[in-house]
Amino acid sequence: MKPIRLMAGFLTVGVWTLMSRILGFVRDIVIAAKLGDGPMAEAFLIAFSLPNMFRRFFAEGAFNMAFVPMFSKKLERDEDPKGFAQDAFNGLASVLILFSLLAQAVMPWLVLAMASGFAGDERFGMGVHFGRIAFPYILFISLAALLSGVLNATGRFVAAAAAPVLLNVILVTSMLLAEATGGDFGTFLVWAVPVAGVAQLGLVWWSAARAGFRLTLSRPRLTPDMKRLARIAAPAMLAGGVVQVNLLVGRQVASYFDGAIQYLNLADRLYQLPLGVVAIAIGVVLLPDLSRRLAADDTVGGRAALNRATEFALLLTLPAAVALVVIAEPIVSVLYQRGAFGAEAAARTALVTAIYGLGLPAFVLQKVFQPLYFARHDTRTPFNYALVAMVLNAVIAIGGSYFFGFYAAAWATTLAAWAMVLLLWRGSRRMGEAVVLDDRLKRRSWRILVACAVMAACLLATEWALGDALYQSGVRYAALLVLVGVGIVSYFGAAQLVGATQLTEIRRAMRRNHSA
Fold first, then answer.
1. Nearest-CA neighbor of 146 among 76, 19, 233?
2. What is the pTM of this model?
3. Percentage of the chain modeled with pLDDT above 90
4. In a 3-state reduction of DSSP, which class is residue 338?
């Protein structure tokens, strides 16, 4: 059985996710420049968010949280893992085909559920039309997510991590084609979504077939394992539904403020960069590793995996959060302010970015703590915690909108995320030795905070020294690179100096990753 190397796995997934996020920036920069914060931009964002919302509900967010631990244990014990994966593949495909057909019929109501503020204006018609084109993406990407879970559980991370890059490559290519041919920008963009889904599914299916898991569509079977999978997945899907309710509340609030959906989307893209690189890497690698260790009664190994994942999360997430708060304005201005996206829109996006930055560590720590429950087939407890976070999110977003406008939606997301982390942490205390913090993590945590403080001071001093260069056409890109470079060098320099990390550890992990 191929062992899972945690740090090498984190780096593999993180690097590919970073590439995807960079291309995502390119995509959003072009959309913002061409469509600004206008009706077509908001209609596309709502249409694109529909399959992605249900994707997190059915696929990697909920279904995979139940599927991966069961598959990992069957793999560890050699209990016909391929047959189990084939049955899960058929069952998921059948449900999603029926669901996609239903969604086509009720698309107007789905759009209103996402953004009732669209009612009565041109955004509604465009949103329904775009939504019907984009929605089949859920079928392809959900099956791709299941195959990715199979690959990750076997210690193969490259293809699954690279698949999201295809989405952004195809979306960016579609916009270039629209520009070159004079075609309708929105039409080219939205048709690229299902095309990208087919490409992503094809990549991971090919990789899984090479790994010995060639899954094909056939009639689904309701086996005892499938019944058990459904029982475990149901609370996780409900919890996923609660998370999506939080997103729905935010979009509903934003839909009543012109341009706010775009501001929240662009700010979301910025904090999703470190979130994707760190949190997704941890979630993808840690869950199958913990599941296999629990199957082998390896409590010591499970504790070590949890502590190193937490350390990795803090090391890379805290400085990113500080940067998003301290230099949000120059980052947003340089990346997005051009064409139809003006200075006022950039300023609003920067403030939302800073608010999201305050919640970034919480979003990542959730990915560390949730596998503790899912690896034990406990999906009910996170569901109960998610309900509490949902209520808190709704109260802050809706109630706060009367005082703070659409910014309340961002504050609600951040505060609810921290509430969820506190609940997950408190609930994990009953899990015994496997969740005890080791001395190395305790020593390094406060040193990471010291390094972050040094970085913040350097960023503020550099921003003051650069002055207007950060906002002047022609030199602002170079100025932002200088600012980011100062942040990276000051943080890792201080981290090395105070003992928050040893760069030799990262280099060794990278060499192991390369050799693997």
1. 233
2. 0.68
3. 22
4. strand
